Amino acid sequence: MSDRLLVLVRHGQSEWNLKNLFTGWRDPDLTPRGVDEARKAGKRLKAEGLSFDVCFTSDLKRAQDTLDLILEEMGEDNLPVICDQALNERDYGDLSGLNKDDARAKWGEEQVHIWRRSYDVPPPGGESLKDTVARALPYYVKEILPRVLRGERVLVAAHGNSLRALIMVLEKLTPDGIMKRELNTGAPVIYRLNADSTVESVLDLAD
Ligand SMILES: O=C(O)[C@H](O)COP(=O)(O)O
């Protein structure tokens, strides 16, 4: 197994996940369940025998708090943590703050699914997944990947769609393939990379 370790984890349940609201760049806290999910992720990573050298997260609280809780649970709370907007959730634009069921009632199930899961159709005033790839991927290539290739063990705590953007590239998924790829809150995905930055193995710890 290669030493080139990259773990991606979506934040635990947020207050707005619980209320079923489009969140995007808004900044709600974790719920008590989200805190438990983050702690459980830390326990699972520790049980896998993993430890890290450096961590990345977005500039949103739910991801930063998830990372802190994971590291606390692993007894690794002194690691360097790099926060960057490039890892923020996809911007949901005018949908931010709206209830997802209300949006389905207003615009129809199919349109809302297209906004949530299509590759290149942005929600009104927001980012498509393609737009999210366009800002998250250069950051990954410049800041995260070189460290993984140098043998630093890297943990990234971010968001459903900013991580789907990276996963699309890592797993070489087509626009159709990424539509079906979901990430559970607090569920780590463990990658080992080859020296040419392709994926050697992937282990998804989703329940
Ligand atoms: O920003 C949000 O609302 C969620 O974190 C991700 O939502 P989605 O699953 O509707 O894309």
Automatic annotation (TrEMBL):
Residues the record marks as active site: 11, 89
PROSITE patterns per record: PG_MUTASE (PS00175)
Gene3D superfamilies: Phosphoglycerate mutase-like
Domain of life per record: Bacteria
Catalytic activity: (2R)-2-phosphoglycerate = (2R)-3-phosphoglycerate
Similarity-based family: Belongs to the phosphoglycerate mutase family. BPG-dependent PGAM subfamily.
Stored NCBIfam families: pgm_1, PRK01295.1
Function: Catalyzes the interconversion of 2-phosphoglycerate and 3-phosphoglycerate.
Annotated protein name in UniProt: 2,3-bisphosphoglycerate-dependent phosphoglycerate mutase
Organism of provenance: Ancylobacter crimeensis
Lineage: Bacteria, Pseudomonadati, Pseudomonadota, Alphaproteobacteria, Hyphomicrobiales
